[in-house]
Design brief:
The chain has about 375 residues and is an alpha/beta fold. The protein folds into two domains: about 220 residues, Rossmann fold; about 140 residues, Cytochrome-c3 hydrogenase, C-terminal domain (Cytochrome-c3 Hydrogenase, Chain A, domain 2, Irregular). The protein is about 35% helix and about 10% strand. The strands form five sheets. It has a five-stranded parallel beta sheet with strand order 4-3-5-9-11, sandwiched between helices. The relative contact order is 0.12. It binds ligand FSX, iron/sulfur cluster (SF4) and FE3-S4 cluster (F3S). The site of iron/sulfur cluster (SF4) has 14 residues, from helix 12.
């Protein structure tokens, strides 16, 4: 229960509640559900997890365990029983294989399978083997009795780096191998560990899949485009663009669309979640979004090519303007950029007011209260 104990998983009560509050808000749940989610996180029944590695860089695991957000990692690793993870487990060789098979037998139908990396199919899958078995065979074997299957990262979700043209090993996502199973995709190269935390919390709290989009990504994390809440959006609307890396406009923080930013076609939550707990994300440090959470953008389209914007979404709010003392309604600005013609912006003075969903605002308020209580 929430009231029990001051520390959980070696992190302070305050950090625990902050992390769970943020994850609850991220899942799109009402703030009042925080207690229920915290209870699930603290439950003694930790689901066993088998984490398989295939063709990838291990950045997904790395982004989870790196010290810059220890609370998230600690929480995830304490909520689950990580019985098999090739790069984190102490055992190796036969010991590791034993752990894998013990979990599969003892917890058949109960364990969560997390897949990291793509699966090569060419030449009977010989380009990725662990313990003498191809990635495809291991995946099929472990998936058979898994309660839930999560693909972590773009490689496991969509093929990612390994499937980039000319895809020499015929790498495919886990869902292409497990066609008759529901595979939750958490893409990103790497994805935010919060998205994994929230997905696991969702499974633990409600014992069902979160709402997914048509690419099986949780809607709470991938329901909005980067472009909708990008901090450079006012510049896009005003027609102010960086023309080259390092030019004056780039230094001024102008929109990166002409440098190939894929934000207008990319569904992800980096713009509100940020990375590394230091409030940065690619666009904030001057790099265009490469569309790393999308199946057809990163690794398939040149980072310099522009995405077409067919149906630009106006910002949530424009400031009210006063004209001769009379209040005007929202400016009916339509930012029409068609066929790759960069950023012809109508209504040049439009400013976007960054509007977070209510539950994120609630979480923010609650976190401030927790800080004040300190
Ligand atoms: Fe892929 Fe994950 Fe990119 Fe790397 O392993 S999503 S290459 S960050 O680490 O799978
Ligand atoms: Fe932000 Fe990219 Fe959209 Fe410009 S094009 S506003 S940098 S997401
Ligand atoms: Fe990926 Fe774009 Fe976010 S490149 S990390 S989806 S800003």
């Amino acid at each position: 229960m929430l009231e029990n104990g001051f520390f959980f998983a070696g992190i302070s009560r305050r950090s625990f509640l902050k992390t769970v509050t943020a994850a609850t808000a991220m899942m799109g749940l009402d703030f009042t559900m925080t207690a229920q989610v915290a209870e699930a996180a603290e439950s003694d029944s930790r689901p066993p997890v088998i984490w398989l590695h295939f063709q990838e860089c291990t950045g997904c695991s790395e982004s989870l365990i790196r010290a810059s957000h220890p609370d998230v990692a600690t929480l995830i690793l304490d909520m689950i029983s990580l019985d098999y993870h090739e790069t984190l487990m102490a055992g190796s060789g036969h010991q590791a294989e034993e752990a894998l098979h013990k979990t599969m037998e003892e917890y058949a139908g109960k364990y969560i399978l997390i897949v990291e990396g793509a699966v090569p199919l060419k030449d009977n899958g010989i380009y990725c083997k662990v313990a003498g078995k191809t990635a495809k065979d291991s995946l099929e074997e472990v998936a058979e009795h898994a309660a839930h299957i999560i693909s972590i990262g773009t490689c496991a979700s969509f093929g990612g780096v390994a499937a980039a043209d000319p895809n020499p090993t015929q790498a495919v996502p886990a869902s292409d191998v497990l066609k008759d199973r529901a595979v939750i995709n958490i893409p990103g190269c790497p994805p935010s560990p919060y998205n994994l935390l929230s997905t696991i919390l969702n499974l633990l709290t409600f014992n069902r899949l979160p709402e997914l989009d048509k690419m099986n990504r949780p809607m709470f994390a991938y329901g909005r485009k980067i472009h909708e809440h990008c901090e450079r959006r006012p510049h896009f609307d005003a027609g102010r663009f960086a023309e080259k890396f390092g030019d004056e406009n780039h230094s001024e923080g102008y929109c990166l669309y002409k440098l190939g930013c894929k934000g207008p076609a990319t569904f992800a939550n980096c713009m509100t979640l940020k990375f590394n707990d230091v409030n940065v994300w690619p666009i904030s440090v001057g790099h265009p979004c490469i569309g790393c959470t999308e199946p057809d953008l990163a690794f398939h389209m040149s980072i310099f090519d522009k995405v077409q914007i067919h149906n630009p979404t106006p910002p949530d709010h424009y400031p009210d303007t006063l004209d001769n003392g009379e209040k005007k309604g929202a400016d009916p600005v339509t930012t029409a950029v068609i066929g790759g013609v960069a950023g012809a912006a109508l209504g040049a003075s439009a400013m976007v007011a960054k509007k977070l969903p209510n539950n994120l605002e609630d979480a923010d308020k609650r976190n401030k209260e927790l800080e004040d209580e300190e």
